[in-house]
Amino acid sequence: MCLFAMLVLANGDLTKTKPNRPQPADVVVWPESTNAVSKVATICYDNNVPMIPFGTGTGLESGVSAPRGGVCLNLTKMDQVLDLHPEDFDVSVQPGVTRNALNSYLRDTGLWFPVDPGADASLCGMAATSASGTNAVRYGTMRENVMNMEVVLPDGTIINTAGKDRRTKKTAAGYNLTNIYVGSEGTLGIITKTTLRLYGIPETIMAAVCSFPSVQAAVDTTVMTMQSGIPIARIEFLDDVMMDACNKFGGLDYPVAPTLFLEFHGSEKNVADQAEAVAEIAQMNEGSDFQMASDPAQRKKLWSARHNAWYAGLALKPGSKGCATDVCVPISRLPEVIVETKEDISKSSLIGPIVGHVGDGNFHSLLIIDPDDPAQIEEAHVLHERMARRALAVGGTCTGEHGIGLGKRHLLREEMGEGTFNVMKALKHALDPKNIMNPEKVIPV
Question: How many angstroms separate the CA atoms of 398 and 53, rounded?
């Protein structure tokens, strides 16, 4: 810590604005306790040095870049499961614990944590970005599953958002500080512990895959399923471009057509009833017969296309990079927005598969670009702008789960309106008056 303090005090350019993006931090520290994080924060606060929290770096909106330099707090060494209460269905973890690590720890308890953004992200990082993923349609996002957080404020003060050691399923006490920090993207403080809801592992899990003649038919099936009140656990959409990519990448033989990947949780009878009901809806929309599996190995094989979608998309053009974004819309408007987005991409010079957690109105486009071609980068930016504004025009949001980061700050202002945006700015100033906490992200000051 003394060496670190000397680095901060001696290195005058730590506080200078860095114009280039992406930009690494000037210093990286690996604290091993909340008190160590607090000491780092105190030194940075006293010397006006920016701080950037780091979990696993799986975010997609430049959340851990350092446009003003500063100190990166790599929290991966704080990797302990602190308190497990299986009888109360909750657990507290440090920021270095990932979702796979937690579920491995829980394996013999009959419990699991279902929020699954795809990557093996850190759980506190997932809280910071309000992550969700494939299971959100049944189990909710991080916003619904975080009960309490320990946070180090920019000046080193340590707080607990719901009170120290509080872990009730609900509360009406005071302001909801927990949900202020969920989705704050490291701009209001450093999350050093989070308390999470747990769930019983389902008795039976069944996976199914069904292809459709059109995007409209597949998404209509999703909407009708949700409107029917069927408690589906996952309902994922891959368009024909992505299915073609997955077949080539994984040696699969799925129809090259818009496809739904589904999963049902519950008792054996309930799962069978759910699958039968969704199959009837799919047939009404000219869907194919279900391919189904309950055996874990067979389920994994059925879902392999969805799990490998990112890598399959990149393999369409070896040496390319992926430029991904997401939006979320009211589910009744989902068919038109996906269809319009797909048509927009098809008129461009880029390849752009679409995937989505369509059960909650959330979908992603993955534009395949040459990172050395400025024209392609600009074209991708324009397509993503139109996709976001298409969502905003129907009452949706510019991001369902990726977050704001650097790239969507102007869209946040447009989405929220000037009055609400100014309240957010006031909140940022109140909690981070020196603007050193992951600066320039979410709310530019």
Answer: 24
pLDDT digits (tens, 9 = 90+) for 224-259: 999 999 999 999 999 999 999 999 999 999 999 999
What backbone phi and psi angles, to 5 degrees, belong to 283? -65, -35
Distance CA 298, CA 291 (A): 10
The answer, as to whether pTM is greater than 0.85, is yes
- Helix (H) or strand (E) run with residue 423 in it: helix 418-431
pLDDT in tens, 3-56: 343 343 334 333 333 333 468 889 999 999 999 999 999 999 999 999 999 988
| Average pLDDT over the chain, rounded to an integer | 91
Instruction: Report d(CA 289, CA 270) in Å as an integer.
Output: 20
- The answer to whether 411 touches 403, Cβ cutoff 8 Å, is no
What does 275-317 look like in DSSP terms, one character per residue? HHHHHHHHHHTTPPPPEEE-SHHHHHHHHHHHHTHHHHHHTTS
Compute the radius of gyration of the chain from its Cα atoms: 22
Q: For 98-164, give the DSSP string.
A: BHHHHHHHTGGGTEE-----SS--BHHHHHHTT---TTHHHH--HHHHEEEEEEE-TTS-EEETT-T
Sheet with 362-369: list strands edge to edge.
291-293, 204-211, 259-266, 234-238, 354-357, 362-369, 321-328
Q: Which residue has the tokens 């000219």?
A: 286
Residue 397, strand partner residues: 328
- Percent of all residues in the chain with a pLDDT value above 70, rounded to a whole number: 95
Is the CB of residue 439 less than 8 Å from the CB of residue 67? Answer: yes
